[in-house]
Design goal:
The chain folds into two domains: 160 residues, 3-Layer(aba) Sandwich (D-Maltodextrin-Binding Protein, domain 2); 101 residues, 3-Layer(aba) Sandwich (D-Maltodextrin-Binding Protein, domain 2). It is α/β, with parallel strands linked by helices. Helix content is 41%, strand content 19%.
Length: 285
């Protein structure tokens, strides 16, 4: 009898106590390795825990494809990614948008030598234009779209070449290429690297869609709401924690934007179409 009572009491206590919730796993698509992820987002991890009351765990992913697989298998709950990556993730995982991470002065441009032969968009016809990583929002898709907005067709009116930014800058100074597609911050670094050269911008695009935090489609509603509400209520505190990461300085002066929808990324879809990509079911590189 005593054993039966003890067993019944243990069962009652076990069912009365809530089960410990699994940690909410947070990944970033452009950071490889746990050590690098902790360096950039360790302070943010703690701040988000305090703001939500949830246990947050940083979860490294080796690639964007790995991030998609992790979302689909519920191995990760939240993924911070770029706008070009988001439109593919949307097709492959149907994630829920949590919040956009604004990057001030995040726009694409096309630069030339200020004292070189290229003085107008028309002068680029038949010339070589260098772009950065294939599929990069600000180094490939954005600059290509900026030229398209001015009437130059990708791969027809000029020859696109994919070259790393430093190599491309050297090629530009030698006259091997006519122009470079890059973003505002990258041009600043090129000017710093070549202080004896003058550069000019002949095409600028509109502000690019923001980086975006998404959640797996079947994330529990209470977890999703807690995270989204934390960004709305304690955005300043969370941003200060984000900015402790060196690479995260790109978000300086930015805000977390909760009024964001999938259609805000249609501009990115138009960029893909500009370079000849009509479907968004795979990462282009």
């Amino acid at each position: 009898m005593i054993r039966k009572l003890a067993a019944a009491l243990a069962l009652t206590l076990a069912t009365a106590m809530p089960a410990l919730a699994d940690p909410v796993k947070f990944a970033v698509t452009d950071i490889e390795g746990l050590e690098a992820l902790q360096q950039e987002f360790g302070a943010f991890e703690l701040a988000l825990e305090e703001a939500t009351g949830l246990e947050i765990e940083l979860y490294p992913v080796a690639s964007r494809t790995t991030a998609v697989e992790a979302l689909n298998s519920a191995q990760v709950d939240l993924v911070l990614t770029g706008p070009a990556e988001y439109v593919v993730m949307k097709e492959l995982s149907q994630p829920k948008i949590v919040v956009a991470w604004q990057r001030p002065d995040y726009f694409a441009q096309v630069a030339v030598l200020a004292d070189g032969p290229i003085r107008s968009i028309e002068d680029l016809k038949g010339k070589k234009v260098a772009f950065g990583s294939v599929g990069s929002t600000s180094q490939h898709l954005g600059p290509a779209q900026a030229l398209a907005d001015f009437g130059l067709k990708y791969g027809t009116d000029y020859e696109p070449v994919i070259i790393s930014r430093n190599v491309a800058a050297e090629a530009l100074t030698r006259g091997d290429i006519a122009a470079i597609g890059l973003n505002f911050g990258h041009l600043a670094s090129v000017r710093e690297a070549f202080p004896d050269k003058a550069f000019a911008v002949i095409a600028r695009g509109r502000d690019l869609p923001n980086d975006i935090l998404v959640a797996r489609k079947d994330i529990p509603d209470d977890v999703f709401n807690a995270v989204r509400d934390a960004f709305a209520a304690k955005g300043n505190e969370l941003m200060q924690a984000v900015l402790t990461g060196e690479d995260n300085k790109k978000f300086t002066g930015g805000f977390f934007l909760t009024d964001v929808t999938d259609s805000d990324y249609d501009y990115v879809r138009s960029m893909y179409r500009t370079i000849g990509v009509e479907t968004f079911t795979d990462f282009v590189n």
